[in-house]
Every structure is written in C-alpha cells, then in structure tokens.
Amino acid sequence: MKAFELVVAKDAAHAVALLAEHGPSVKVLAGGTDLLVELKSASSVPRVVVDISRAADMKGIAVTDQGLSIGALVTHAEIMRSPLIREMFPALADAAHTIGAVQTRNMGTLGGNLATCVPSMDSGPTLVALDALVTIAGPGGRHQMPLTGFFAGSRKTLLEPEELLLEIIIPRQNLGKPADFQKFGLRKGQALALVNVAASLWIDRERNTCVAPRIALGAVAPTVIRAPAAEAYLEGRAITLEAMAEAGRIAVGDTRPISDFRASADYRRDLIAVLTRRALANAYARAMAKPEGEKR
Ligand SMILES: Cc1cc2nc3c(=O)[nH]c(=O)nc-3n(C[C@H](O)[C@H](O)[C@H](O)COP(=O)(O)OP(=O)(O)OC[C@H]3O[C@@H](n4cnc5c(N)ncnc54)[C@H](O)[C@@H]3O)c2cc1C
Question: What are the residues whose beta carbons fall under 8 Å from the beta carbon of 262, sequence distance 6 or more?
Fold first, then answer.
C-alpha cells in the first residue's frame, strides 16, 4: 500500500474541518472494511485519510422529532443488537445479519456501506423501502436528501470529497412500518447478493388493501432502485397471494439485471419475481402480527 497521512477526528465537526483543510485529495476512514481493501490495490491513494471512527456523535441510534436517526458510524453488529431497531424494523436487523462475517459486521458501518455504493449493498434496499433520508455535513453546513437521490451510480454517490455522511433517518411517519428483506447469494454466509429485495407496506384493515407499498431492489441496476410500476399496481389493491406474485412479475420490468460469472440476467429476473413476492408476503405477515391498535 502506498503511504498516506492519517489524521484522527475527535467528532463530526472536527472531521468536517479536517476534510476542508486537507481536501480534495482526502478520504474518510470509518470501519475500513472497504477502504483498506481498495487502498491496497489502488494505483493512487489519497494524500490524507481522516479517521472518523472515534467520532462518538456519529454512533447513536435514537428516535428524534424527525424519526429514527441512525449515526453513520453505527456498525452492522450494533444494528443487529439494537432493541429499538429490532422492535421497529426487524428487516434492518435481518439485512445487517447477512453482511459478510462476524468480523465484517463488527467493523463495517452503515455509513460506509451506503457511501461505498456497490449495487449489491445489503443495507440499501430496506432503508430505501422505508423512505430513508441522509444528513450530509460539509464546509457549507448540513443538508438532507432522500437516500435514493444520494446514490449516483455504481460506486458513486453525491458526496463531495470534503463532505461527510452524518446520519440516516427513517421518517417519523414510517416508524414501525412493516417491512421485510430478502437476499439470495451463492451460499448462505459471506456471499454478495445476486439479488436483494426489501418491501414495506401499511395495510388498510377494513378493506385489507395495501397502503404506501414500497419495493426496493439491489444488484439489478447500477444502484439500489425502487420498483415504481409494481408499487403503483399494489397501491389500494386487495392483498392476496396472486396480487403479490403479480407485483413480483411487474417488478422485473423495473430492473436492468446483468449477466456475469455469478448468474445470468434471466436467472436474476426469476429471483426478482420470487424474492419480491416473498418480501411482500413477509411484510404483510408482520403487519398482521402487530397488536390491533398499531395496525393502519
Ligand atoms: C469480507 C467482506 C465481506 C463483505 N460482505 C458484504 C456483504 O455481504 N454485504 C454488503 O453489503 N457489504 C459487504 N462488505 C462490504 C463492507 O463491509 C461494507 O460496505 C461496510 O459497511 C463498509 O463500512 P466501513 O465502515 O468499513 O467503510 P470504510 O471501509 O471505512 O469506508 C468505505 C467507503 O465509504 C467512505 N465513507 C465511510 N464512512 C463515511 C462517512 N460517514 N461519510 C463519508 N464517507 C464515508 C470511505 O471514504 C470509503 O470510500 C464486505 C466486506 C468484506 C471485506
């Protein structure tokens, strides 16, 4: 690995100041599970790496006025263990559980997973299905945007070199929204997703119809995407197994899967239909399992 200068940030504000001071040839280091692999084989390395791993103000999980805030430095293992997340969004904990092995989950952070922005990232689909926002800090202050807008392409986000991903927010109106995450890889552990899917929905109890359905798909396009045609098909529709299967078939048309050494595009299309149906069915089962007063 080529040499670089390492500077350590005390907190988020200090990290932003260090990024501004050393930019643009600067990189952020969180858990290092992606960055160190990348730097080992990179032909050019940043002049300065800002280690943010000790910024305690980026590590919390809390309900705020805006919704559920998850600090960018929260690790996958912490997501799996968080009582708040397990109660409100078990799908997020399930997704975290599928990431790498114990060591990767202990070191790897949610912010790092989103900022790396590989098409098969496992945190993305559930958060997109829950309409998550991200808070970004930079020399000009802080701003927020929808997570879908943050993804700019394969391994590309809208983050500037001097900007920091601070937190991920699931909006208040979606707290407790029933959701499910499905991943299919070539083996059970340590496998990248051939396809991953998350679905979320509320149900209208009197009519047994779908309200605000969301379907998010990974590894089937350059970034995690929504399946708008499938969502529109489900909105206000009676919830049946046939409707969920049809939504899965429609979702295929919303995607652009590729053929590679792991699987053909046709195989991925089959997976999209099957996993979407399963994610919807499980989200529906979660909705029905909620106590009467909590169902919409
Ligand atoms: C063996 C192995 C298995 C893996 N398996 C999976 C898997 O199954 N599923 C999966 O989705 N991923 C997997 N990964 C990828 C990786 O573990 C995750 O993407 C991890 O969450 C990255 O987080 P990190 O904190 O380690 O990021 P880092 O490596 O520290 O950083 C990654 C990138 O994000 C940037 N960055 C990090 N945090 C911020 C921030 N707050 N603001 C701005 N930029 C930031 C860094 O500059 C860098 O470019 C695997 C990795 C390994 C090594």
Answer: 186, 192, 194
